[in-house]
Task: structure prediction
Amino acid sequence: MGELENKIAELQKRIEFIEERLEALDILEERVDYIEQSLKEILQDVELLRIELQNIKQNRA
Result:
């Protein structure tokens, strides 16, 4: 192989590596979105429980 072919092969390897990393980042982004949504749901549940506890305390007073 000539010098040009070697450079092309190296660039192709780098491109493949970058594409793999981008795919991994996409997967991580999906996981982060899922975790974020789960945390929002948990916070909503906590807020509802806080309100319910406050109502119970008020009813006892």
Q: What stands out?
A: The CA atoms of residues 6 and 12 lie 10 Å apart.
